[in-house]
Amino acid sequence: MECLVEEGNAMSFLGPLMRAAERGCMQVVEWFVQRGCRDMDLCLALTAATSSSQVEVAAYLLPHVPQHVLAALSIEILKAAGERSSGSLDGVAFLLRSDFLGDPVATYAVADSIAKSDDDTVAPELRSFLREHWSESAFLDGLQQGQEHYLNFVRIVKWGESAIHLKDLPGPLRVAIAYLPLYRESVKAGGCCLLSQRLRGQLVEAAKRLGGVVLEEANQGKELLAVLEHHLPPFLLNVSSAAY
C-alpha cells in the first residue's frame, strides 16, 4: 500500500480507507490517518466502521473527526450506519455511549429526533432501537419501570412469605438485592460515559428513592451512579468492577 501511494502517486484514499474501516483493519486505517486524510474522508470512514460494528476502529477514528463536522452530519451518520448495518447496531450504540457530539443534550436530541422521524430512509431496526433505548419516551419508560420496581420491592419486604425476611437484613444488603442488577447493567453499558435514556430513567428513580435527590440533567450520569455506590455494600462494588 505504501508503494502504491508513494511510488504509484495515488491521490484518493477514500475507497481503501472506508474498506479498511468497515473490515476492522486497524493497521491500514492508522496508516492512512497518520499520512493525512480530509475531514470528510475521516467522517465517512467512521460511518463505515460504525455500520459494521467495528468498535475499535470507530473509537480510534472518533477523536480525529472535528466536532463541527460531527455536529453537522450527526443525523446522517447514524442513519447511514443503521441502513448499512448487517443486523448489529453495536456501532451505533458505541457512538451514543461515547457522547460522540461532546454534549449529552445534543447526543440525546439527535437520537430522539431519529426515533420520532417518519422519514422512509431511516432503517426500521434503527428507529426501533433508538425508540426503545435512546429516545425521550425511553427515559419516561425507564422512570415508570423504576417506580414499579420500587413498589414491587416494598411489597415483597412488607408482605413477602419467603423464609428469608428481607426486612430483617441490614439496609445495604436490601439495597443490593433491589438495585445491584441495575448498577451492574449501568457499569457494563458505559459507567461514566453516556447512559441510554432507559437506563438513565431507571437510575433517576433509584437515586430519588435511595438518596432523596432528583438528578434529571442529561450530564449527571456519574452522580446517579455515585448515589447507588453510596448505598451499596463496598465489597459488592469491588466485585462488579472486577467483572467488567
What can you tell me about this protein's structure?
InterPro entries: Ankyrin_rpt-contain_sf (IPR036770), SKIP35 (IPR044956). The chain has helices at 2-6, 14-23, 26-35, 39-51, 55-61, 67-84, 90-97, 104-116, 124-133, 136-159, 171-189, 197-211, 221-231, 234-243. With 244 residues, it is mostly helical.
Structural class: mainly alpha
Beta-strand portion reads: under 5%
Distance between the termini: 38 Å
Per DSSP E runs of 2 or more residues, the count of β-strands stands at 0
Average pLDDT score: 88
Q: Uncertain spans, ≥5 residues at pLDDT below 50? A: none
Main beta sheet = none
Residues in helices, as a percent range: over 70%
Order of helices and strands: HHHHHHHHHHHHHH
Radius of gyration: 22 Å
What's the shape? elongated
How many individual helices?
Answer: 14
InterPro entries: Ankyrin_rpt-contain_sf, SKIP35
Protein name: Ankyrin repeat protein skip35
Quick structural summary:
The chain is built from 14 helices and no strands. It has helices at 2-6, 14-23, 26-35, 39-51, 55-61, 67-84, 90-97, 104-116, 124-133, 136-159, 171-189, 197-211, 221-231, 234-243.
